[in-house]
Design a protein that fits this description.
35% of the residues lie in helices and 26% in strands. It is α/β, with parallel strands linked by helices. It has one domain: Rossmann fold. A six-stranded mixed beta sheet has the order 6-7-8-3-9-10, sandwiched between helices. The protein has a four-stranded antiparallel beta sheet with strand order 2-1-4-5, with helices on one face.
Amino acid sequence: MTVPVIQLEDFRKTYTSGEVQVHAVRGVTLAIQPGEFVAIMGASGSGKSTMMNTLGCLDRPTSGRFLLDGVNVGELNRDQLADLRNQKIGFVFQGFNLLSRTTAVENVELPMLYTRPPRPAKEQRERALKALEMVGLGQRADHTPSQLSGGQQQRVAIARALVNQPKLLLADEPTGNLDSRTSIEIMGIFQQLNDQGMTVIMVTHELDIARYCRRVVVMRDGLVRSDEAVENRLLASAELAHLEAEQKAVQLA
């Protein structure tokens, strides 16, 4: 039987603010299998950010269980949690979070600096260059973020997330700072990675972006309100071809 990459069992998270208790997540049971591409949606205060922090091992449930690739996260100490996060999860953020004075390849190498035991410098460089090639930036390895477009910076961030060969890729509003065409290109990269077997979970508030995924989980008031497969799924390659055809028609008019 296949072990889920993510398994939540009656997951609850409560924060205390003074004398007030805030029930951010109120009892979620959810399983995500290897190779799925899932969008988590919801308005502000729905619990989706709390869910994402937990899935990324940045926070722990108040009660219930969270298993990551079969490991009960609640039983790990801080160092074990950090190791699990570094080995199993790749993170992609809305703001890229690249070091401004550091080249693309050096930015991609960063997660490997925390790997135990440490990898040799030559292996780190080879893996980083390979990850950049996977996202189409092999020729830009020596460029700093200021020399790259927003889309290229996000590609560097994706390469950085992939360099440790994680089981799970978590993307938090990855297209939030990008224009429409570049957003489609980035979703195309996620679709390609998913087609190759990578499990991808993405938080987004944009329904159009969620339609590039295979499954959409909608949260409201700390609960999962719907969990459905995407019908009429958008394919980034087809959307880009359509955009190019429209642009060509405008130029010929």
